[in-house]
Amino acid sequence: MSRSIRRIVTRVVKLRARSTASLRDAATVIREGGLVAFPTETVYGLGASARNARAVKKIFTAKGRPSDNPLIVHVNSIRQARQLAHVTRDAEKLMKKFWPGPLTLVLKKKKGVPSAVTSGLSTVAIRMPSHPVARALIRMAGVPIAAPSANRAGRPSPTRAEHVLHDLDRRIDLILDGGPTRVGLESTVVDMTGFQPVILRPGKITAAAIARALRQWTAVGKSHSRPRSPGMKYRHYAPEAKLVLVEGPCERARKTIRRLYRDTTATGKRAAWIDFLQPAPARPAIDLGRTLPVVARKLFAALRDLDKEGVDIIFVRGVTERGIGAALMNRLRKAAAETIAV
Ligand code: TXA
Ligand code: MG
What we know:
Mean pLDDT: 92
Oligomer: single chain
Structural class: alpha/beta
Bound molecules: threonylcarbamoyladenylate, magnesium ion
Helix content: 25-40%
Order of helices and strands: EHEEHEHEHEHEHEHEEEHEHEEHEHE
Shape: globular
C-alpha cells in the first residue's frame, strides 16, 4: 500500500499553555485537507476534516488501514453530533452524562457524511473528546474531525507524540505534542442503533456505568446476531515481539511466567515480563503500577519501549476484568499471539 505515498515533511509542534497560534495553524491544515495528529484524553488521534472525503482517504493510506474499517468522528458539541447523525433519546442521555469524555456512540448517519468515513455503513461513530487541545482544534477548524488512533495499522495506539512520529513520520503534515495521554486506552464504543445498546469495544466507561445512566438496561449487550465493530476482526495493538498472555490466580500465573521466562532466556532469546498490582511483583518483572487506571495509562508505551529494546518475547500477566480491567484484557487478548490459562 505504501507505493502511492507521497513523502512529506512531518512537523512536530510542542504545545505550551498559550499555543493559540499553533492550534490555529493546525486548524488551517485540517480545513485545507491535511492530516494532523493530536492528543485526546485516551490516545493520540490522526485527524482530517470529516467533510472532506479526499482528506479522509489520506488517513487510510498513511496508516495502512483497511478501507472497510470506519473512523470515529470527533465533535465539539451535541449540536454538531446532530448534524451528522440521528440522536436517539438514550444516546442523548449518554452524551449528557459522559461527554466530553471517552465514549463513542454508533448512530444512524445523516446525509453528507462521506462514505469514506463510515466505510459505506449507514451508521457513524461519534465522540466528543475532553482533551483541551482536541476541543480547541475541532472548534477552530470549524468542522467535525474524523480520526482513528494515530498508529500504523495493527500497532499499539500512541499515548505520546513520539509514538506517532515513530509510526507516521513523513506520512502526515503535523503532530501536536500535548504530552502523554491520561487514559491510555481507546474510548468505549457503544452501538446505539439496535433494540438495546451493545458494547462493541470496552473502555474506561464501563457497561455498568452505561447501564446506570440509562436506568433500564441491566446486562451488557453482547448479541452475536448484530454486526460487530468492523475493526474487531483485525489483529490489533500488537508489539513486534511475541506477546504471551498468562491468565489465572496471581501467584499461580507468576509462577508459570517465572518458569517460562527462565526457559526462554536459557535459549538465548530476550524475554520481558510485564506485571502489576499488589503485592509488587519480584524482579525481573516490569511493574506497571498499583491500580488498574495506572496500568491502563502505561501499557501501550511499555509495549513500544520493549520493541525498541529488541525484546523477542513478552510475558504479560492478566488482570481481573473489573472497571477498566475489562478494556485492558480486551486489548491484551487482541495483542496476544498466545494465551495460557493456569
Ligand atoms: O479513543 C478513541 O476512540 C481514539 C481517539 C483518537 O478518539 N480513536 C480510536 O479510533 O480508537 P480507531 O479508529 O482506532 O477505532 C475506532 C473503532 C474501530 O474498531 C472501528 O471499527 C469502530 O470504532 N467503528 C467506527 N465506526 C463504526 C461504525 N459505524 N460502526 C461500528 N463500529 C465502528
Ligand atoms: Mg486504532
